[in-house]
Design a protein that fits this description.
By secondary structure, this protein is α+β, with helices and mostly antiparallel strands. 53% of the residues lie in helices and 18% in strands. Strands 1-2-3-5-4 form a five-stranded mixed beta barrel.
Length: 222
């Protein structure tokens, strides 16, 4: 009897936790660790492992500081996985991207790691498939599918919510941070050095801007 009750309790708690994760709107707590792929945030003694787009890494504070991450729960092989974003717009666009056939959370995260929601919207509305194919893993067929399945939805969404262009701020980027992020994404040191010669020219760019320029250069070379 005890074993049966024990397993019932474990099953109930497991389902309850998943239900709670589904209801999460955002998490706010202490950032314990981060990389271009993930962030770990501590909330009331619990640590949450969250997958993030690479571009989010550059606007996160240093570990030890408080941070707010807008979350979305998806399942892979029946395992719950939390995805996190800097704002509601990115999260909503992530959910929109995953409605496209053949676009899973990994591809959607990659798209948002390279392009902002406004850049993605523009590329889809203007049918600029060459912009979409600059993202690693997005081929011409996938780009055409994104345009075909999302153009009307984005047109309606803009009419309802008035998507705004993100304002870009100036600043001096640090190439070492960009280099580490590119290494984490699987680019070779030689490729990164070549990218630096082209994109790092001392212009007043933020880390995010420098990172995206390097990604576009590297994607065109592959």
């Amino acid at each position: 009897m005890w074993d049966i009750s024990y397993y019932k309790i474990v099953y109930f708690l497991d389902g309850f936790l998943v239900w709670c994760l589904r209801l999460l709107y955002y998490l706010e707590g202490t950032l314990k660790e981060c990389s271009p792929q993930h962030a770990i945030i501590e909330v009331m003694g619990l640590c949450f492992y969250i997958l993030i787009p690479a571009s989010f890494y550059f606007i996160l504070p240093s570990p030890g500081n408080r941070v707010k991450i807008y979350t979305c729960l998806k399942f892979k092989d029946e395992e719950p996985i939390l995805y996190g974003f800097p704002g509601k717009e990115e999260r909503e666009f992530f959910n929109l991207l995953t409605t496209v056939s053949g676009i899973g959370p990994k591809a959607a995260l990659s798209l948002l790691g390279h392009l902002s929601p406004s850049q993605l919207s523009r590329a889809i509305l203007l049918e600029e498939s060459e912009v979409l194919t600059c993202v690693p893993g997005i081929g011409s067929k996938t780009a055409r599918r994104l345009i075909y399945e999302l153009k009307e939805k984005i047109t309606q969404r803009q009419g309802e919510t008035g998507l705004n262009e993100l304002e870009e701020k100036g600043g001096v980027g640090r190439w070492e941070d960009v280099r580490q992020a590119l290494l984490a994404l699987g680019y070779a040191p030689g490729e990164i050095s070549a990218a630096r010669k082209i994109v790092d020219k001392g212009e007043p760019l933020t880390l995010e801007e420098l990172f995206k320029k390097a990604l576009l250069f590297l994607a065109e070379k592959r």
